[in-house]
Design a protein that fits this description.
Blueprint (H helix, E strand, L loop, with lengths): L5 E9 L8 H14 L16 E3 L8 E11 L5 H11 L4 E9 L6 H4 E10 L5 H12 L5 E4 L2 E4 L4 E7 L2 E7 L8 H6 L8 E10 L1
Parallel strand pairs: 3-10
Antiparallel strand pairs: 1-3, 1-4, 2-3, 5-9, 5-10, 6-7, 8-9
Length: 208
Amino acid sequence: MSESKFRYRAVFSKNGDMRFIGHLDLQQLFERALRRSALPLRYSQGFSPKVRLNLAGALPLGFTSTAEMMDFWLEQPVEPPLIQEQLNAALPTGIRIISVTEVPNDLPSLQASLKSAEYEVSFKAEIDVSAVNANLEDLLNKPNLIVTRRNKQVDLKPLVEALHWEEDKLYLRLSSSPEASARPDELLALLDLTTEQYDIQRIGLYYS
């Protein structure tokens, strides 16, 4: 029997206390919500069948998002607005399904095809945004932007794909592929900014 039936892609937001839910816990949360939704779910084959779902790249703890994505499979076609309604009824406050679309089965997985992510950084009132902008320009003029992860040095410079300001908010598009990725808080730490001085929201995910 073919593993694939009807594949759907949901875009969802993650806010409030849900921003502290990790990636594995989020996957389990969606498994439970899908089971409660009464949708005709497609399960994996084998001794211990599981709900077939695939989440995009993990959102760091403490970040909010309006652009998270999940693929899941159904045994029968269902109208996307009905899927959205039934899933939202089964999900906790802080996780909302924004849209649902049917997608081809032959698309690569979300994780494998993810290339970059866009973030919105909002600074707290006491932060001098003009000084942050000036310091950021100086930082990006350096030949390398080295950070250390698990005792390994990584250069963020080639991973910054784009940035711009809109009023007092900073927008960053950073590489987020399986081969190379960057986080906005890593870049802001190089400016000696702490996580208490800003809020980060993921607002876009881009795929190959």
